[in-house]
Write a structure and sequence with these properties.
Length: 169
């Protein structure tokens, strides 16, 4: 019934809201870096968005595979799938990093900024495909709905994307 759905979904969304607030701690801890390098704020949504999107694509592939029984919740299947998605993520990350580098360099005209943003993009997209393909297996193993990986990867990559970006920059 509706009350049960609101309760179950509300718990999950509240947990994600609390997790997402962690990115504000990362930003606050790096205020000086961000103030001195405005390029971070100009491209942060591009970076975390790319991570969330790439991770969500990987999560959806696994969720669909689990639903259709093409994938099984076993260590071997999870390991093979995650390894495959890591390679896909590395290739996608490289491709997007080139595009990101060109975008930042044309916009900012600064080689160091363009390189830093491109490297962050490579790392974020690669990491997101690994996490995105891992989450459905982890959730299913914990008797949770693997479909929750879709919303979870967005929030996780917001926090991880901010962390990786300030770390690289």
């Amino acid at each position: 019934d509706m009350a049960q759905e609101v309760w179950v979904r509300g718990q999950w969304l509240l947990g994600l809201l609390v997790l997402q607030s962690a990115s504000s701690f990362v930003i606050q801890a790096n205020e000086e870096l961000i103030r001195d390098h405005l390029v971070i704020t100009l491209f942060l949504t591009m970076l975390v968005g790319a991570g969330g999107n790439a991770g969500n694509q990987s999560a959806i592939l696994v969720i669909r595979g689990l639903a259709t029984k093409e994938l099984q919740v076993t260590r071997e299947c999870a390991t093979n799938t995650i390894a495959s998605q890591a390679m896909v993520g590395l290739a996608l990350g490289g491709l997007l990093a080139v595009g990101g580098f060109i975008r930042v360099y044309l916009n900012q005209g600064n080689l160091a900024d363009a390189t830093a943003i491109a490297l962050a993009l490579l790392m974020i997209v690669t990491l997101s495909t690994v996490i995105g393909s891992s989450l459905p297996f982890m959730l299913a193993s914990a008797n949770q709905d693997p479909a929750n990986a879709g919303t979870s990867i967005q929030v996780i990559m917001d926090v991880m994307g901010v962390t990786v970006t300030v770390g690289v920059c």
